[in-house]
Amino acid sequence: MVSFIHISDLHLGYKQYGLQERFRDYAQTFSRIADTTIREGLKLMLVSGDLFHTKSINPDTYHQALSVLQKLKDAGVQVVVIEGNHDTAPSSRESSWLSILETQGLVRLLKLKADDGMGVKLMGDYVDIDDARIFGVRYIGYSTKKEVESIASEIRAVNDKLGKPKTTILLMHFGIEGALGREISGEVPLGALGPLKDVVDYLALGHYHVQYDRDGWVFNPGSPDLVSMDEYGKPKGMYIYRDGNLEFKQTWKGIRNFIRVRVDVSSAVDVTQLRATIDTEVAKECKGAPEGSIAMVDLIGKMPVERVSLNLEDWSRELEEANGLLLCRIRVRVAQSEGGITDRDALSLARHEVEHKVFNSQVAAHPVYSKQKDTMVNLVKETKDNLLTLSRDQLGPEGVKLYDKYYEILAKDDPELWNEELEVEETIEDQKKAEEDELTEAGIEPNDDKKGRWF
Ligand SMILES: [Mn+2]
Fold first, then answer.
1. 174 CA distance to ligand 1 centroid (A)?
2. Which stretch of 84-88, 231-235, 353-357, 450-454 has the lowest confidence by average pLDDT?
3. Residue 447 buriedness (CB in 10 A; 0-12 / 13-18 / 19+)
4. Quick one: CA torsion of 242, 243, 246, 251, rounded to 10 degrees?
5. Distance, CA 227 to ligand 1 centroid (Å)?
6. Sign of CA dihedral 419, 422, 423, 426
7. Ligand 1 centroid from CA 204, angstroms
8. How many Å lie between the centroid of ligand 1 and the Cα of residue 26?
9. Distance from Cα 187 to the centre of ligand 1, integer Å
10. Which is nearest to 168 in space by CA: 156, 183, 182, 185?
11. Residue 53, exposed/middle/buried by CB under 10 A (0-12, 13-18, 19+)?
């Protein structure tokens, strides 16, 4: 009877926050999972995509993968993998690093194959281990939903021809609708998996970084290490299937300790008090934490001063020093003193919406405008817009100063501050780019109308 460990989304090679320590953490996590696998006497490891964080890995990342996979091979553990969105081949004419590892006999990469006479086009590739047959479909992005039917019929065709195995396993890399509690494009509703449910006993999923299962046959272990702060405090780990029993094991705490600190700064009246409040709260939360923890400090409530007037970078460095942290980040999360604009607003709202909010709160602060607030807000907006249409000589010296200031603010970019959100953006962009590249490779030109929201 087949036994296995099912993991996903190792993201080897990710240098989170630009830290070499985090780069090593992901490999350390993989190594510990390998040790667990060997210690538990398991002979099969399923990896449902994103072993690597990028399609092009550096020599150190390759070395990390090599040493852990060699350890598994020496212990007689077979590793079956598929490509996730992060580690597919750059194009259908090029190789992925996973295919290199397969050439070296370190993994068994389940690939999409050409029609092999069994009417199997999409997947054709499978491996029989004990009483199980393992299929795999690499990340196919927005096509997933419409391919469900044909994947199912191809599995049925193989099983009909070769005899139905006791257990049919399918490795795939996509998210089930609703699993992350927010809408994400490209995910598949559970209800759309009906045809697969008929032929698959265990759908070994990867892609979303938190653990979830559905309906007794869909299992997603999550990324064993934290890839984004969005995953903080959520379950993640590995599945172990043995003697017909499935067990989810939460990944140990401690490969890297993360601390999320929320500091309500409303009671601080000036910079000195603000700093003292942050120092006290961070010290309290970090007390007893392991050396080298990472602290994410979210400031909530009303700020006594504008964020731009503070040097939060320096404060972060000082907090790291004082609390033995590997990294400290301070982020302003809610209600600034002026305009009520939060970091989230700044990301999600268009510029004119942000301006509207700011003007609105400014005007609302003066009771004299209460009866004609909206008119006043519109007047301020019009004034601003008109000002920007004037030429520099029409503005006068004070006007020019304001004009330059305005564009200086617009041009100012602080990517570090938006780090988490940018990671998400990049991933989605990467996915779309990859899918378009693939279609172009296949001789299909992306339809311009649909660019950016494929299928
Ligand atoms: Mn992933």
1. 9
2. 450-454
3. exposed
4. -30
5. 8
6. negative
7. 14
8. 12
9. 14
10. 156
11. buried
Ligand 1 centroid–CA 288 distance in Å is 32
Tens digit of pLDDT for each residue in 162-197?
Answer: 999 999 999 999 999 999 888 787 899 999 999 999
Q: How far apart are the CA of 87 and the centre of ligand 1, in A?
A: 9
For residue 373, the tally of other CB atoms under 10 A from its CB is 14
State the distance from the centre of ligand 1 to the C-alpha of 423, rounded, in angstroms. Answer: 11
- 321 with 283: CB under 8 angstroms? no
CA of 431 to the centre of ligand 1 (A): 11
Q: Using H for helix, E for strand and C for coil, what is the string for the chain?
A: CCCEEEECCCCECCCHHHCHHHHHHHHHHHHHHHHHHHHCCCCEEEECCCCECCCCCCHHHHHHHHHHHHHHHHCCCEEEECCCCCCCCCCCCCCCHHHHHHHCCCCEECCCCCCCCCCCCCCCCEEEECCEEEEECCCCHHHHHHHHHHHHHHHHHHHHHHCCCCEEEEEEECCECCCCCCCCCCCECHHHHHHHHHHCCEEEEECCCCCEEECCCEEECCCCCCCCHHHCCCCCEEEEEECCEEEEEECCCCCCCEEEEEEECCCCCCHHHHHHHHHHHHHHHHCCCCCCEEEEEEEECCCCCCHHHCCHHHHHHHHHHHHCEEEEEEEECCCCCCCCCCHHHHHHCCHHHHHHHHHHHHHHCCHHHHHHHHHHHHHHHHHHHHHHHCCHHHHHHHHHHHHHHHHHHHHCCCHHHHHHHHHHHHHHHHHHHHHHHHHHHCCCCCCHHHCCCCC
Domain ranges of the chain: 4-250, 258-348
Residue 84 CA, ligand 1 centroid: distance in Å: 7
Question: CATH for 4-250, among 3.40.50.150, 3.60.21.10, 3.40.1190.20, 3.60.130.10?
Answer: 3.60.21.10
* C-alpha 291 to ligand 1 mean position (Å): 28
pLDDT tens-digit readout, 310-345: 999 999 999 999 999 999 999 988 654 455 666 566
pTM value is 0.75
Residue 101 structure tokens? 């590892």
C-alpha 223 to ligand 1 mean position (Å): 7
CA distance 170 to 179: 19
